[in-house]
Amino acid sequence: MTSRLSRAWRSPAFRIQALALLIAALVLTTLLQMQAGLEQRFNERTATTLGGDLVLSGSRAPEPAQEQKMAGVNGATVIDFASVLIHKQQFLLASVRAVSPHYPLYGELLAADRRLGPGIPRARGPAPGNIWLAGTALDRLGLEVGDHIALGQRQLRLTHVIVKEPDQQRGFYSMNPAAMINLADLPGTGVLATGSRYRHTRLLSGDGAIIARLRKQLEPGLRADQQLRSARDPAMQQQGPLRQLFLWSRLAVLLVLMLCTAALYLAAQVRSRQQRTLIAVMKTVGASRRQLMARLIGSDMLPLLMVAAVGAGLAVLASMPLLTMLGMPMSSLSWRVLAGWLGPMLLWAGAAMPMLWQLWRAPAGQLLGDHARQSGGHRTLTAVVLALLLLAGLLSGSVTALWPLVLMMLLAGLGLPLLLWPLMRLADQFSDRLPLAPRLGLRRLSRRQAITLPLLASLSLALAVISLSMQNGHQLVSQWRGSLPQQAPNYFVINLFEHDLPVLRKWLHEHGARAQPLYPISRARLTAINDEPVRAAVSKESDRAERALNRDLSLTEAQRLPDSNKVTTGRWVRSAGEVSVEARLAESLGIVAGDTLTFTGSRGQLNARVVGLREVNWESFSPNFYFMFGPGSLADQDRTWLTSFYLPKDDSGQLAGLVQQMPQISLLDVNALLNTLQNLIRQASQAALALGVALLLAALLVLLAAWQAGHLQRREDNRLLVILGGQRALLRRVSAWQAAFLAISAALLANLVHLAALWPLGQLLFDGQVPLTLWLLLPWALAALLVAVAALNPGASAPRQAPVTQ
The pTM is what? Predict the structure, then answer.
C-alpha cells in the first residue's frame, strides 16, 4: 500500500491534481466558513437594526391569542410615544420609550454617567423610578445627572445620559430628544389612556426554526395596524455593504468551484494520457478488470482523499484568525468542513472518472492509437459540468440572481474557444509562408483539438476571473469607503425658523463646522395625480407607496441637485411649479415625467409638474427627500428649515451653547450610527480583500495546471525535434510562439468574458453598469508572463526513458 501511494506521487500530473485538490479544499472550506460568518453577521446586524429576530408592532397591545402564541419565547416589550417632560417650570417634548427588563435583546445600549461622558454598555434599561435622557434634553432643560424630572404624574430621577440605542425603531428623523423609562413606571405616569397615540412593539429572539414557526402562526391573525418583520426577510437584506459582500461571497464560491474544476480537468487529462501505456501493458499481460480498476482508481483516490482532508483541516485553522480579524463570528464546523473536504473530490470524480472509465473499457490496441486520444471528450465535459452544477447548487444556497452570471461565464468560457477554433485552423492552412518557429508553434495548437480547446477554455476563464475579481473587489471597497467620507455629517438640525438662520450660520462659521445646504421643509400630503384622487390613481400599493399615502411628507426646494442624488429620467428642476420625484417611489405610485401632482398643506393646495425622477442614496448621511421642488415653489407654505453638519467629537461640548441660543431646535446626534457603519465598512473591506485573495489563488491554480499540461506535451514535441536535429534555440522559439498563440487567444477571450460580465455584475453588485477600467489589461500582462516562462523553459529536457509505471 505504501509503495502504491508513493508511486502515484512520482507523476507530475498526479501532483498537480493533488495541488488542485489541496487548494480547492482549502479555499472552498475557508469560503464556506467565511460565508457562514457573513450570514450570521448579516442576521445579527439586521436583528440589531430591528431589535429582535422577529418584531411585532402595532398601535395598541397584541391580542390575547397573539400573546398566547408568543408565550415562552424570549422577548422584550417597547412602547414609544411623545410626551412632555417638566423640570422647574420648563417644558420639553420628548420621544419617550418605555422598555421591559429584558430590553435590549440585541446590540449595545450605551449610556454615560454624565453629559459628554464616555458611553458604557448597559445590559438593561433604566431601573424603576429612573429615567435616561439624550444629551440634547439635558442641554435644553439645564439638567444634571441626579436631578428629578416629571413625566405626567410621576417624578423620575435622571441617572444616565443616552449615548446609543441598539435598534432604530425611533426612526432616523425623530424630531424630539430621546427619553427612556422602565415599563413598570408607565402606568403611574398616567400619560397613556384610551385613544392615546403610541406604538407598541414586541421584540422576540430565538433560533431560526422557532422564529419561522412563530411567524407562520402570527401572520394570519395580524390586525390592520400591525406589522410583522423578521431579520431574515429578503427586504431587510437589500441595502448596504453587507448585502453586496454577501452576494460577492456567494459568487466567489461559485467562481472558485468553476476554477478548481478547470484545474482538475486539465490535470486529469494529463494523468489519463500518462496512464494509457501502463493500462495497455496490463491488459496485454492478462490483468483482470478488478486489478485494472484498483490500479486506475485506488492508487489515486486514497492519497487524494488525504490531500483534500489536509486542505480542509488547514482551512479550519486559517478561518479562525481570519474571521476574528474580520470581526465575524466563528460558526460551527459541521457540514461545511465535510463539504469542503468531499466537494472537491466530487469535482475530481466528474473530471477524472469518465477518462478512467474509457481506459478501463478500451482494448489495449486502441489505447496506443490516436482514436483513444480524441474520443470521449463530450462525455467528460458533460460529467464535469454536471458535477460543478450539482456542487454549486448544494453549496451556494438560494442565489437565483447569480445563476445567469455564472451560466453566462461558463457558456462563454466553453463556447468562445469553439468559435475561435475555425480561425486557428484557417491560420494553420495559410501558415506555410511563416518562419519555421511560429509555423510549428501554431500547428502544435491547431492540430490537437482535444488538448488545445480545454487549455484555451480554462485559461480564458482563469484570466477573466482574475481581472473581474480585481476590478470588482477594488470597486466595492472604493464605493464603501466613498459612501462615508472622513467628515460625514454627524449632527442634524431640525425645526429651524427663518430668524434662526443667521444665528446658525454664524455659529457654524465660528466653530469651523462643515455644513450641508439649508433645506426649507413644508409638511403636506399627496392627494391627487393628474387631478385624479391619489387612492384611485394608485391601483397597486407597495409598502413604499402606502407610507407615502398615509402620512404627511416633508417637501423641500433646492436650486442644485444634491450630491447624493442622480437624475435617471427627465431633468432637474429649474423654476417654481416643477418637482423631481424619487425614482422608486415614483414607480410604486405610477408617476412618470409630465404628470401633475397635487399636495395639500397647511396653506392649501400646491400643484407641480413632474420634470424628472431621481435615484437617491439614502445611506449618504445627507438630507434626502422624496419630492424636491424648484426654487420658489414653497414660498406660500408654512415651512421650517433643516440642515446637517460635521463637528469634531472633541468640540461636541460647544453644542450646548447652540441649543441655548435656539432652544426650539431639535438636534439629532448620529455619531453612534456613523461609528457602526464605519466599523461595518472596515470589516466588509477586509472580507472583500480575503475573497479576492481566494479567487486569485484558485485562478493561479488553473494557470499552473495549464502550464503543467502544456509542459508535458511540449516536452514530447521537443524530444521529436531534438531527434530530427533541432537546436535548443529553435526549441525556445517554437515554445515561445506556441505559448504566445495560446496566451494571446486566452487573453482576448478573457476580455470578451470580462466585458460580457460587466452588465450583470453591475446590476447585482452596484445597481448600475460597471465601468471599463485598466484591469482589462491584466490578462495581457499575465499572458506576456506565460510567454516569457515558456521561452526560458521550453521543456526540452526529457527523461531518457518514458516511464510506464506512473
Answer: 0.66
